[in-house]
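User: Teach me something about this protein's shape.
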Amino acid sequence: MPLSRYTFQPGINKEGTAYSNEGGWFDGDKIRFRSGRPEKIGGWNKNTSNSFLGSCRKINQWVSLAGDKFIGLGTHLKLYILQGNVFNDITPIRATTSAGDVTFSASDGDATLTVADTAHGAVANDFVTYSGAATLGGLITATVLNQEYQIATIVNANSYTIEAKDTDGDEVTANSSDSGNGGASVVGAYQMNVGLDEYIYGVGWGVNTWSDGTWGSSASQSFTNQLRLWTLDNFGEDMVCNPRNGGIYYWDATNGVSTRAVNFTSLSDASDVPTISSQIIVSEIDRHIICLGANTIGTSVQDPMLVRWCNQEDAADWTPTTTNTAGSLRLSAGSKIVGGIRTRQEIAIFTDNAIYSMQFIGPPFTFGINLVSESVSMVSPQACTNANNAIYFMDKDNFYVYEGGIQVLPCTVRAYVFDNFNYNEIYKVFAMRNAKFNEVSWFYCSSSSDEIDRYVTYNYLDRVWSIGTMPRTAWMDIGASISNPLAAGASGTTTNYLYNQETGSNDDESAMTSYIESADFDAGDGDQFMFINRLIPDIYFYGSSGDPAITYSIKTRDYPLGTLTTATTASVGSTTGVSYIRARARQMRIRIESTDSDNLWRLGDTRFDIKADGRR
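Assistant: First, the predicted structure itself:
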């Protein structure tokens, strides 16, 4: 019997129905398209040498002048520098008490210690390190007290609780000999307030922690009650850091990884440094540090539409004078700056209602600003990325590309993404570039998830889309200090790791499930039934060990709204010549799936022995 060759259009297309997209691919997971052919994506493994605290929302990599490779990570709890396999805590210190300001009280048989410190300024889950403490007289020794603690609960503005532990992290219960106090030399070093791991809309009931404020009072969004997003950038070999709507911080590489980042206000000769900012960007050519959504000079009030920059190559000088290049400007279209990104010869700034182009023009104005487009924005501060000399970004209902002008990206999975999208967690959306495969992707939360569980990918050379599932919270493409993309994610519910992406073929040493499924096809216009009795596969296996295999499935139904049933399956290996299968229906579709370990594959053209089989 004659064989029919099936070549499906590249890319996933879910804009229509499975029947109207005949001749194309309709579904898939962990599949990419390269030169029009679907293939399994690369695998990943997590760096189990060490984990870190909090959900990482930003990764930054660079190499120092001495050749040291650094990776910066910002989580909702901490700020880290990764060197080698060690996460070095560089979280800034917010306040340090005078000796004796901190006292402890304990209860017999209880590991909970109440800490008294007038106007401590802490929130639940903050970190504090004690030093100079003496034993409480029993099991709560000086060694137990003099270490870092995470605050358990806030009692009031002058006290809070911690859970006593030994140096291994095991709970220590006080006994009757623990009388309290800790001595007159106790010092508490409080790290900057932690942020939330969730996005909160607006103000009012439920925004702050329980019992914060008086009954019936509203709560405003503040630095500590919003999803913690970081921007990390390099200023020479050093790193500048900004938690969204918080202070700006400086980490000096020459001081080593054992030193913490410091607030810009503490820099030598600091002058009118912004105390609050939504985002920082270093202008690469002219070396200005730019704050988006900063406070005006002389006040501590944030202006969400104000852009400020320091004097050229001087991180400490933010006072505009006739002899320097420090300055500011205010945007007018919109109510707040959502985010910005550095690109070729300009910085693109997104407000909630417009896009601006900011360019270095030199003295006396330093920077010029041009309105690019109105009524277009970005869904989250990190929903844009640079690739192929363009900026790709996601708004609340579409995808766009900026190449001097704004264009909508024709998207064949638009409805699939935005009809199943958790708009309550929009600020978790982030974009990433995977330059090796000519891809940009957006990771987002589906409507049934409060954490990222899905991604959508656009191949900007082939101009095709693919979809998939993967829990990641941040991503960094290959660069000077890493040879494979690096991503952050949680293993289980609480332990956070970095993952080496595009390495091997497995899901962290376990088998990865990947599949692609065609749309429905029929004979003619479906006026006859089809009968299939054999297939000749065309698969290229690579990077495999042992005997790789994938599964072909034939799914059938008689009408577009009929129940889809798997009629037959066939296991195909690297030496399979032909598989004899049997299926009969008015409509069919093909699914190719792999579930084994150490297996990468690329799909060619499959041939089927199909014939018409009557009209019943």
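Now, about its shape. Helices lie at 142-145, 414-418. The radius of gyration is 29 Å. If you'd like, I can walk through any region in more detail.
User: That's plenty for now, thanks!
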